[in-house]
Amino acid sequence: MNFFRSIKIRVWALFEIVVITMLTFTYIFLIAMFPNFYEWMKTYEISEALVEIRSNWYNDGIAEIINNQAAEKKMYIEIYFPQNGASFSVDRINAGLPLGSLTKNLGYEVAKSEKGIVYKRLRDERLDNTALMMGSYIGKDQHNPEAYIFICNFIQPIGTTVAIFVRQFFFVGIIMMILTIFMSALFSYKISDPIIRINKSAKELPQGKFNADIEKYDYAEIKQLARTLTSASKEIAKSDDLRRELMANISHDLRTPLTMIKAYAEMIRDLSGDNPEKRERHLKVIIDETDRLSSLVTDILDLSKLQAGVTEMHLETFNFTSRLSGVISRFDIMNESDGIIIDLQAENDIMITADITKLEQVIYNLINNAVTYTGDDNTVIVRLVRKDGGIVRFEVEDHGDGISAENLPYIWDRYYKVSERNKTHKRAKMGSGIGLSIVKSVLEQHSFAYGADSSEGKGSTFWFEAPEYSEKPPEQAKPAHSKRFTTDKSKKQS
After folding, report:
1. Residues 416, 470: one domain?
2. CB-based burial of residue 25 (10 Å sphere; 0-12 exposed, 13-18 middle, 19+ buried)?
3. Is 321 found in the same domain as 276?
4. Nearest to 397 by CA among 435, 342, 436, 347
């Protein structure tokens, strides 16, 4: 059954059906329709001559026109004048006419006809032909007498001609069928072969062969299909590489804290069990590494839920300024040994409508990212300002190495990580490397505009914009300008 579903077989069969249909139609035309068509053509020629003569009847050159029509179309033309019984005729078919009483009787029929035209189909036993005759009243005026025109032509016997055509058609048909078999096979191959090769390339995708370039073809549709498949294979290859890289990174991130937890647990068991100070220090390492594992797993789960679209939005109207201050305060509990400064520059009582929990996650990830990549000045600037048109803009600025123009469009991509050889971005030790993907997903879920501006050697600014809520609650915002310190410069981008 699959054999008959093959595009090659179907194209070949289609060509054969078309040729057979054309041959059948031609055969039917020769046998059944050709005699009728031949008679119709003869009738049309007579009608055409009649119109030409009638339209020029009162012109001086009418005699020449009559002669020319009779000669060109090989017919008999007679002009009959009933007042004196005279007639004028031109015979180009050797009909042995004038027709005498026939033309007179036909004239009577023309006179009685409402249209002034009579058509006759007569059998001439003498010549074994069928005669086609058309009669028409021409008219009269003060210079010309009443007149009738009669035009006659013969339908030659075409049975022998048709028989010859049929015999020739039989042999021609056989030759055409043979040629069609080979030509249709060639055409079907030309059409189906590109699709077969594209299909072969597509079958290699599940085997991990993503980078095989699909050949270019002449057919526009197939060329478009090839381009689409090539693009898809490159995207799949990219996603596969990023997935592999993420899994490697996550595996490393999981293995490191687990190794440390095990090592310090063994140290507590073997060395520091009786020493409270050492035991406390070792337990703190275990707790920190456990928190690190928990953060990693949470990031992965959050990203998976966001990208799968299974999380629900819980929109509330809240004081963004106050909430921002609260998020920044989370960095206060960290160790101050690195002296990172978080400079908050926010306008008072900015109200927006959003999912508080998710937006706080966005803010935290952006600030943590800036803390990770801050420059020598150890300063991160956080801004919250009003713009024209009822828009609120949130910005996080660092003065680190910045991001190259080549890498900047891809920093939001799932699993994307800038090459470590390009020190624009280095993977964070204390995170999963998917924090910006979470930011992107949350902001798109809110339909908030977002972006990043960066220059190599000058730092980066991450931002998003949201509509401001018009009504303000009576509560007062926290101070609009403050400096806060983070503790752990080793904490990396999540």
Report:
1. yes
2. exposed
3. no
4. 342
Residues 6+ apart with CB under 8 A from 440: 412, 450
Tell me the pLDDT band of 428, cut-offs 50, 70 and 90. very low
Q: How far apart are CA 234 and CA 485, in angstroms?
A: 44
User: What does the alpha-carbon distance between residue 286 and residue 306 come to, in Å, rounded to a whole number?
Assistant: 30
Quote the CA–CA distance of 127 and 121 in Å, as a whole number: 15
Query: Domain residues for 113?
Result: 2-160
Cα 203 from Cα 211, distance rounded (Å): 13
**Do residues 365 and 254 share a domain?**
no
Count Cβ neighbours within 10 Å for each residue of 309-324 and write b for 16 or more, e otherwise.
eebeeeeeebbbbbbb
347 and 272 within one domain: no
| Cα–Cα distance for residue pair 210/202, rounded to 1 Å | 9
DSSP H/E element including 132: strand 129-139
* H or E stretch at 148: strand 147-155
Q: What is the per-residue pLDDT across 16-48, written as a single tens digit (0 to 9) for each? A: 788 888 877 777 766 767 777 778 888 888 888
pLDDT reported for residue 23:
78
User: Do residues 278 and 271 touch, judged by C-beta distance below 8 A?
Assistant: yes
Of 35, 105, 48, 102, the closest CA to residue 75 belongs to 48
Q: What does residue 385 show for φ and ψ, rounded to 5 degrees?
A: -135, 160
Kind and range of the H or E run holding 159: helix 159-203
Is 194 a domain residue? no
Q: How many residues does the chain have?
A: 494
Q: Name the CA radius of gyration of the chain, rounded.
A: 48
Q: Which helix (H) or strand (E) holds 486?
A: strand 481-486
Could you tell me the two tokens for 112? Answer: 């009685």
Determine the pLDDT at residue 471: 65
CA 272, CA 330: separation in Å to the nearest integer?
A: 32
- In this structure, the answer to whether residues 328 and 443 fall within a common structural domain is yes
Looking at the DSSP bridge assignments, the partners of residue 482 are 344
Number of domains in the chain: 3
Both structure tokens of 63:
């005699």
Sign of CA dihedral 407, 408, 412, 417: positive
DSSP assignment string, 445-473: HHT-EEEEEEETTTEEEEEEEEEBPS---
Which tokens go with 312?
């629900």
Give the domain CATH number at 120.
3.30.450.20
3-state helix, strand, coil in the chain (%, to 5): 50, 20, 30
Task: Write out the two tokens for 233.
Answer: 């294979």
- Reply yes or no on whether the pLDDT at 493 is more than 60: no
Q: Give the H or E element holding residue 122.
A: strand 117-124
* pLDDT winner (highest mean) among 169-178, 265-274, 359-368: 359-368
* Closest listed residue to residue 475, CA positions, set 320, 371, 366, 361: 320
